[in-house]
Design goal:
Chain lengths: 155, 262
Amino acid sequence: MATPTIETPRSGRVSPGYSRTPGSRGNFEMIAWLFMRISGAILVVLIFVHLYVNLVAGDGITGIDFGFVAGKWASPFWQIWDLTMLWLAMLHGTNGIRVIINDYAEKNSTRMWLKGVLYTSTVVIVVLGTLVIFTFDPCPVIDGVAHVADYCPAP
Amino acid sequence: MSTETIEKEPASKVELAPGVGGGGEIPTFDITLKVRRYNPEVSDEAHWDEWQLTMYGTDRVLDALHKVKWEHDGSVSFRRSCAHGVCGSDAMRINGRNRLACKTLLKDLDTSKPILVEPIKGLPVEKDLIVDMEPFFQSYREIMPFLVSKGHEPSKERLQSAEERERYDDTTKCILCAACTSSCPVFWTDGQYFGPAAIVNAHRFIFDSRDDAGDMRLEILNDKEGVWRCRTTFNCSEACPRGIQVTKAISEVKQAILTRKI
Ligand code: HEM
Ligand code: SF4
Ligand code: FES
């Protein structure tokens, strides 16, 4: 005699749109949540020191020009500072938008497209930004001609 | 042990004279009740119906709905059972806020404008103010809302100190009305989020010293659709007719998951 199976009470009665796909465990969402808070706290320091140094200290806002940026990026300290700020702000901002997409997109296909656009632009900006910080050369030599400004070392 | 229930109701719009006693002395006033009607057997579109009613100063929105159903239009459909804020059947959207119709006095609403009554949002409407609560209860069942204890069955009651009991006192007060879950914008989007009520009821056992399945519940709520979807908007805390600090309970569950993992 076959063993009778007893269904879970009311099983199969939940509207299909509401049933959750199981197996989506793992700690990703927890890590993302934690990252938002930690990166946020670090960004407060990075952003406000950045704003102060650029806009208030020294000649203030009138002191900002090509030479000012070139001077900052000649120092590894500001290179690392700006790199950290770029990466943290981009990952923080991207995760923030990812969360907003999850909250507002109603269909999985819309979600997929929006996130595709989001991740592509993040990669482009992070890669470009990193390249600029490390390959920036304020005194380039183009076709054998040195473009020398007063802040460049004498050739 | 008494825990205060803080009810943020607006100041009374209609003052009752001190010393009013018998039924005949209770002041009356006129209201316009607008109810969002939906009957899939007639039309796929919902529409508003409205009634002018003369109500008493002691009447609640539920009494106005009863008056409509019993004296004007018997087809108006809504759930109610206890009529005293205990069973959790009659959560609805009243003037844009989730409340229990049986706990909302008409005099506390703005009676100069029509009073709008809609079904709670985010769950499939079946008829008028009745929604399909199954998705809500499914999430509730998933967090295992029952005591799980390891070891031998004790021959006496399971003892607990007053402090241990106090730890989860707030979340024992839930009546499963769904006012919180159906006020949550994250739940409105696609109904995948476990929702505040499931987390509140998980909290009730996670922080119960007699329960041994806290880790399992934390693991369940560490899901993609679990506590991390909460955006701390506080809609749930504001909606809860039992005054439960729902958002706080959710944060405590988040903290518990974090401390367990790290
Ligand atoms: C100034 C320091 C910053 C702090 C302290 C901070 C903090 C936070 C925190 C804690 C969250 C999570 C909110 C939640 O989970 O409900 C968040 C979300 C977000 N952040 Fe930041 N953040 C900062 C800077 C930035 C910057 C520079 C950007 C842009 C690149 C940004 C973009 C976002 C976005 C888009 C969200 C998602 C919004 C939401 O969930 O409602 N934040 N931020
Ligand atoms: S937590 Fe409050 S609002 Fe939510 S279901 Fe329980 S009693 Fe209702
Ligand atoms: S009818 Fe029971 S809570 Fe309102």
